[in-house]
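quick q for whoever's on today - can somebody do inverse folding on this one?? i tried earlier but teh output was garbage lol. tokens:
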């Protein structure tokens, strides 16, 4: 038990929770806000939150994750917020630190600088009650006050990175960098966020797609920050937006690796395998073009790279999948015992195809006659042996991932965490 208005150490030795005297019991919604030196705006922001809570009718707690050196925590606590004091270690990490302290069934995130209008949270509450698991705000579907958003962000950075994400994942977001967003507590827990900085926003969106969350996008009003308030981007210098953009692209690559591997790999595999099959029994002439051993080696290289990319892309897809459907589908395609038997059989055939070439090599005093079809057989055979070994390792990897992936990632398994009362 903790006493209202006092500080309580909980869960982590470097996090300290202050609970207001009029604390909300059993909240439906948690407004979760990281804050860093927001003394200028936090009072008005808290007023906006209380107005929005009143309009929404939702029983709501306000949890401020504070790493400030000014009076931010004091003001927020006096106006009814739970304040979690944490060391300064990144925006994404602030959300991670807060997870055990969230009591609401749904979580609404944003900034404390009064740019996002928390007087209008009713639409988010209604969307949660209608079954949404992930809600993205959209400044582009709502309104953007003149001067509230740097032109570089508004007309280049945000549209470009939003387009890239939509292209990679066939999604339809209009504003992937909007800071006002919400998700169910269960989804937040299963999402297992890792990003420590700005890139958390992209990680969250990509994982929402992997998790196949019920998602909606709501228009929001983006205001000009109050006079005197300097954005964190500007505080850190002109290079910070570019660094943030680079981190976003890196996050898309890390959590979208299958996009870069499976389709390009399939193209390389098909082209390489077709070239090998065409030349297996000897050179082929097409018009003035003669295809022979050099072309076979190119095809072997292409097919090997392609198969490697496809198989690693499939492993990545299993790791990204929170529903287990990808692994189950691949397990049906590559059942372990039949796959191992097939790999042994195909690999043996491939190695046997090299025997005539090896015999000729030794019988011909360590030289191969030019134009011999046996060399063509051997190249195709060697690729079949390599490919069989790769597929065998992949079949084992599927079983390994089945054994070690955490069961709580399964959508049918409820997320469980120790929460602070």
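ok took a stab at it. sequence:
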């Amino acid at each position: 038990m903790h006493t209202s208005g006092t500080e309580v150490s909980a869960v982590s030795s470097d996090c300290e929770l202050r609970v207001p005297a009029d604390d909300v019991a059993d909240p439906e919604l948690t407004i979760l806000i990281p804050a860093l030196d927001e003394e200028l705006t936090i009072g008005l922001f808290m007023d906006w939150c209380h107005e929005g809570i009143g309009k929404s009718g939702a029983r709501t707690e306000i949890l401020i994750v504070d790493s400030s050196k000014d009076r931010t925590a004091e003001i927020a606590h006096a106006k009814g917020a739970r304040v979690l004091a944490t060391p300064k270690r990144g925006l994404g990490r602030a959300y991670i630190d807060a997870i055990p302290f969230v009591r609401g069934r749904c979580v609404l995130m944003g900034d404390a600088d009064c740019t996002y209008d928390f007087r209008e949270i009713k639409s988010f509450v209604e969307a949660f009650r209608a079954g949404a698991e992930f809600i993205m705000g959209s400044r582009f579907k709502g309104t953007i006050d003149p001067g509230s958003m740097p032109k570089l962000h508004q007309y280049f950075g945000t549209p470009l990175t939003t387009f890239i994400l939509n292209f990679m994942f066939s999604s339809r977001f209009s504003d992937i960098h909007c800071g006002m967003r919400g998700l169910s507590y269960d989804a937040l827990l299963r999402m297992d966020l890792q990003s420590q900085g700005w890139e958390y926003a992209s990680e969250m969106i990509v994982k929402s797609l992997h998790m196949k969350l019920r998602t909606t996008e709501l228009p929001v009003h983006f205001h000009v920050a109050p006079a005197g308030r300097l954005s964190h981007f500007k505080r850190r210098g002109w290079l910070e937006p570019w660094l943030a953009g680079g981190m976003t692209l890196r996050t898309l690559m890390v959590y979208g690796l299958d996009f870069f591997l499976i389709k390009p790999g399939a193209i390389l595999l098909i082209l390489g395998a077709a070239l090998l099959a065409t030349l297996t029994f000897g050179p082929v002439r097409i018009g003035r073009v003669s295809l022979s051993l050099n072309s076979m080696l190119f095809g072997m290289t292409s097919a090997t790279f392609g198969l490697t990319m496809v198989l690693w892309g499939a492993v990545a897809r299993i790791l990204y999948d929170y529903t287990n459907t990808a692994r189950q589908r691949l397990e049906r395609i590559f059942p372990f015992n039949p796959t191992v038997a097939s790999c042994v059989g195909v690999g043996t055939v491939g190695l046997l195809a090299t025997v005539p070439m090896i015999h000729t090599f030794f019988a011909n005093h360590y030289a191969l006659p030019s134009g011999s079809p046996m060399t063509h057989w051997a190249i195709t055979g060697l690729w079949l042996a390599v490919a069989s070994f790769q597929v065998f390792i992949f079949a084992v990897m599927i079983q390994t991932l089945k054994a070690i992936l955490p069961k709580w990632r399964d959508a049918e398994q409820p997320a469980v965490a120790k929460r602070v009362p």
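fwiw The chain has two domains: 7-254, 257-409. also The two ends are 8 Å apart (CA to CA). so keep that in mind when u check it
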